[in-house]
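Annotated sample (chain length 259).
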Amino acid sequence: MARPSCARPNPASHCVSYSSRMTESYPAPREDAPLVVFDFDHTLYDGDSGSHLFAWLIKRNPLRLLVALLASPILGPMAAMLPTRRRGVSGYVWIATFGLHRAREFNRFIDAYVLKHEAQIRQRLLPHALKVFTEHRAAGDRVVVATGAPPELARAILGFVAHQDVPVIGSLVGPRLGAVTARRHCHNEEKMRMLRERGYADIAIAYSDSTADLPLLKAARAPVVVNPKSNREALFRQVLPAGTPILNWGCRDRGGKAL
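Output written by the structure step:
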């Protein structure tokens, strides 16, 4: 199995200074360049960016907050389990966006949230993850972000570190029952379908923290697990090729080999 190296950026290396790349332009990837796919939450970003956005939307309105608290005994466990995660998350999204009728309105709230919380968001971007991300771009790789978060949110956050031009595939939202909810959740097998539809099929390297991304990691010639939950490390070792790196890129409450 092909493995990352400093010639093709190594997720554990320190051979390029991230800060030195901040103002540089990147070479346009060739059509035959290696395809590298990054998850976003707990991979580039320390936490769940979508949950942070929706929590803000809920907390800014007392009625939304009350409804969310009343619904949490049902929605919370659903959101925590893979088979029912989509429904649980959709319930919270519905509460957070009730009264919005267009994706355009929702995107304006994303812009307001990112602007208001810029300092906190910057602190959650993982420096080593951004370094690896930057190295891949500098090497001319085809870099794509595939996330369960709304793509506009991931793009806005990546814009803080001059990566706003990277293709982002994320959960698609639209009007439903008086709110804006996920119409297509970029998650698990659906993430792979959405990647393939955009022409991203032959994956050289994939980075993710989540067992929900096992279809993505298994599809990659060189999977890299980063910042996994400690109780999932054994599963990753069992189902992924021997020697698959399982690393910690700076999430203190997560597993993986420390840098």
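Annotation: Residues 191 and 201 are 11 Å apart (CA to CA).
Annotation: The longest strand covers residues 179-184.
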